[in-house]
């Protein structure tokens, strides 16, 4: 096979190492192969989670029982939540694109601890397997929702132990990935790459790494306490034994709110890369972008109380958490303004990843603003536990992280696979996906304002129209998704060969062949300029 | 298709990684310390009386055991640096024995409580009221989790000892020994907090 001039080394896809077949993947310590292991496992579980969502929306097409009982519906939204949160959006961008791109973007040959990296993938698979086992064993699947709220989580007959322990193991996987990235960034940047010469995607992974490291142990211990509560009746959160269920909520959200930033920060990083590349212009306000990433990660620790405005807290706590919630919007807004300013007077190249980035900014803004409505105390009391909340976090979590994930897939696909995909079909897929998304989740804002509660399989007749629209949106969304993924799989088989730098990007991953060689760089590059050196 | 294999070794990276991991361990116990503080604040009298029932003697002995074991493992690092393999192995052996002694003490201490029907979920304990239930629940959970860490630490140290005897860990490549030492110190440090919280503050 003809390899391009100076690069005699085989690509990471050809080089098998000492194992063959499937073992050359599942025993590989190459960060690129591990990234693809994550990608395929995440896509598989995503198909499961999305199908559960589709079925739930179908149940909601009409009041009363349509296709499933209340108990099945409860089990479905629980599994949908656990899979989507713990197994998809939290590891999504860091474990797939972080693993693949971080070492390359900072000019390293691998992450600091390659074997630990593989181990965290095994923890990931073990964790998800435990969650799935909980569905088919014991006395029926868990029905608490992904939040495992006390005291119900240790009173329900549902098979909670494997699910809770599975989430604990997934947390372990997340900690190890974060730890690995932190040490990699500290120790393995190429010579000359000072902190402020590092691209923004690694910066967001750095901030994410700290959040993973400092927040995840809290959920770890909280989930262990739930396990102990169920097996030994210790009474941590059980009011009949003197425990306090509210304390569970505090501990749970102390992690689970920062976790929101584990999801969104790498998404913002990927979007920053894409917007710079396709505007062919240096990112506007690089230092402010870095500062806002760190500010989001920091302030994100102090806003967990806004999940508990109606749970019973003192007035002072309520005002403080509300104020801090508004503060966290400022760095997010800085990022949006900087993205727009980057495009201003740039030479914009309209390609699929850029369209995805545009769609991201739109849904992220809708999600962000609806978040501010929920962050204000008076509105929250009205909207708490309604469909409005569901609409909000799907706009942020699915809209933010999901759109950024697909933007990143389309941006780095040529680099990862060495193939180009059909942009026309990719764009049609995006249009379907976008229309479906808006149709599915926008009615929830209206329904929530009107008072439809979340987590019910049934509703009053007055909510019927909105739910029909929403369910039809889910069909469009699902077909868009199927089209996008099919298109990428076809490209994998029949795509045109990709050039090393198909988009005109300036960061280090575009200086090496597509797909990259096993060791990434024949010679470690020496960095003299900033990451986005246009003109 | 020839790949030049270079062995990448970065001791500072390994130690940084270990320190970061220790942060997560502290936060893991940190969550429990928060829960302890909340319930101590709410049940001051019950916690006070229950703490007086614990044996300060056994607690003190275990504290001394762990402190000595921390010294021995630190000394084994120095021994390996001065190429004294035998001494290093002997010191690690002492550390392991001290760890086991800690667990044996713990076994008898726990056994005593369980004989008196004081354990989570016991009907006798439930009759004594919420404060006692929470105190002993936290006591068993926190010292239990700590004992689990001791067991993990002992496994690590055993692996390290085997590596030293096979010359995998030597005077110029001892970061693994240092890291397991760090872990053992952390286990010790957590006990230093558990001991006053359960035994001394009455």
Biggest interchain interface, per-side counts: A-B, 40 and 39 residues
H/E series of chain A: HHHHHHHHHHHHHHH
**Helix fraction of chain B by DSSP (H/I, runs of at least 4):** over 70%
Which CATH-level-2 architecture of chain A?
A: Up-down Bundle
Write out the CATH superfamily name of chain A.
Cytochrome c oxidase-like, subunit I domain
Assign the structural class of chain A, choosing from mainly alpha, mainly beta, alpha/beta, alpha+beta, or little secondary structure. Answer: mainly alpha
Mean pLDDT of chain A: 93
- Please identify, by name, the CATH architecture of chain B: Up-down Bundle
Spatial shape of chain B? elongated
Keywords:
A: 535 residues; mainly alpha; 65% helix; globular; disordered N terminus; B: mainly alpha; Four Helix Bundle (Hemerythrin (Met), subunit A); 7 helices; 82% helix; elongated
Descriptive notes:
The complex is a heterodimer of chains A (535) and B (202). Chain A has 535 residues and is an all-alpha fold. Chain A has a single domain, classed as Up-down Bundle (Cytochrome C Oxidase, Chain A), CATH 1.20.210. Helices cover 65% and strands 0% of the residues of chain A. In chain A, helix 2 (31-59) runs antiparallel to helix 15 (464-494) and helix 4 (92-105) runs antiparallel to helix 7 (200-232). Chain A is globular. By secondary structure, chain B is mainly α. Chain B has one domain (15-200): Cytochrome c oxidase, subunit III, four-helix bundle (Four Helix Bundle (Hemerythrin (Met), subunit A), Up-down Bundle), CATH 1.20.120.80. Chain B is built from seven helices and no strands. Chain B is elongated, with a radius of gyration of 20 Å. The model of chain B has no long low-confidence stretch (mean pLDDT 93).
């Amino acid at each position: 096979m003809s390899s391009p001039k100076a690069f005699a080394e085989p690509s990471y896809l050809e080089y098998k190492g000492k194992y063959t077949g499937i073992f050359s993947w599942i025993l590989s310590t190459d960060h690129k192969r591990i990234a693809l292991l994550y990608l395929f496992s995440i896509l598989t579980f995503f198909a499961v989670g999305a199908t559960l969502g589709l079925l739930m929306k179908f149940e909601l097409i009409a009041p009363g029982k349509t296709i499933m009982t209340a108990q099945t519906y409860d089990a479905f939204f629980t599994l949908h939540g656990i899979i989507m949160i713990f197994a998809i959006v939290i590891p999504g961008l860091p474990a797939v694109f972080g693993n693949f791109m971080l070492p390359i973007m900072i000019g390293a040959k691998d992450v600091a601890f390659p074997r630990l990296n593989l181990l965290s993938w095994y923890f990931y698979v073990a964790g998800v397997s435990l969650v799935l086992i909980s569905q088919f064993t014991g006395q029926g699947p868990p029905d608490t929702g992904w939040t495992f709220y006390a005291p119900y989580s240790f009173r329900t007959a549902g098979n909670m132990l494997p699910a809770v322990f599975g989430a604990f193991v997934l947390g372990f996987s997340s900690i190890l990935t974060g730890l690995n990235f932190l040490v990699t960034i500290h120790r393995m940047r190429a010579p000359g790459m000072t902190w402020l010469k590092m691209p923004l995607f690694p910066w967001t992974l750095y901030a994410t790494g700290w959040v993973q490291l400092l927040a995840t142990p809290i959920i770890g211990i909280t989930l262990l306490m739930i396990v102990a509560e169920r097996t030994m009746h210790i009474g941590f959160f059980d009011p009949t034994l003197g425990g306090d269920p509210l304390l569970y909520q505090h501990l749970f959200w102390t992690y689970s709110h920062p976790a929101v930033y584990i999801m969104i920060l790498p998404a913002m990083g990927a979007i920053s890369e894409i917007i710079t590349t396709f505007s062919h212009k240096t990112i506007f306000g690089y230092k402010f972008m870095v500062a806002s990433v760190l500010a989001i990660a920091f302030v994100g620790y102090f806003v967990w109380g806004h999940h508990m405005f109606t749970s019973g807290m003192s007035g002072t706590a309520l005002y403080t958490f509300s104020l801090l919630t508004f503060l966290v919007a400022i760095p997010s807004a800085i990022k949006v303004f900087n993205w727009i300013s980057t495009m201003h007077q740039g030479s914009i190249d309209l390609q699929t990843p850029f369209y995805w980035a545009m769609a991201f900014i739109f849904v992220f803004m809708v999600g962000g603003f609806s978040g501010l409505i929920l962050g204000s105390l008076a509105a929250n009391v009205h909207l708490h536990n309604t469909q409005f909340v569901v609409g909000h976090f799907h706009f942020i979590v699915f809209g933010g992280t999901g759109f950024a994930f697909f933007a990143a897939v389309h941006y780095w696909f040529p680099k990862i696979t060495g193939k180009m995909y059909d942009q026309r079909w990719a764009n049609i897929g995006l249009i379907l996906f976008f229309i479906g998304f808006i149709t599915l989740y926008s009615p929830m804002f209206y329904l929530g304002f009107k008072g439809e509660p979340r987590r019910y399989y049934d509703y009053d007749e007055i909510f019927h129209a909105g739910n029909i629209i929403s369910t039809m949106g889910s069909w469009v969304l699902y077909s868009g998704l199927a089209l996008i993924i099919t298109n990428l799989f076809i490209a994998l088989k029949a795509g045109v060969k990709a050039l090393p730098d198909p988009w005109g990007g300036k960061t280090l991953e575009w200086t090496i062949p597509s797909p990259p060689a096993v060791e990434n760089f024949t010679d470690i590059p020496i960095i003299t300029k900033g990451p986005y050196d246009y003109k | 298709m020839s790949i030049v294999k270079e062995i990448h070794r970065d001791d500072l990276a390994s130690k940084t990684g270990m320190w970061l991991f220790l942060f997560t361990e502290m936060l893991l116990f940190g969550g429990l310390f928060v829960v302890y503080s909340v319930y101590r604040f709410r049940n001051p009298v019950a916690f006070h009386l229950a703490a007086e029932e614990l044996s300060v003697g056994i607690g003190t002995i275990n504290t001394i055991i762990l402190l000595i074991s921390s010294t021995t493992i630190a000394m084994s690092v120095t021994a390996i640096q001065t190429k004294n393999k035998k001494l290093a192995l002997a010191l690690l052996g002492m550390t392991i024995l001290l760890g086991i002694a800690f667990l044996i003490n713990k076994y008898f201490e726990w056994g005593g409580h369980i004989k008196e029907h004081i354990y989570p979920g016991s009907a006798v304990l439930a009759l004594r009221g919420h404060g006692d239930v929470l105190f002993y629940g936290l006591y068993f959970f926190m010292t239990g989790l700590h004992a689990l860490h001791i067991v993990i630490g002992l496994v690590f140290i055993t692996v390290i000892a085997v590596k030293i005897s096979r010359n995998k860990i030597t005077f110029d490549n001892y970061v693994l020994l240092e890291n397991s030492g760090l872990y053992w110190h952390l286990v010790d440090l957590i006990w230093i907090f558990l001991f006053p919280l359960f035994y001394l503050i009455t």
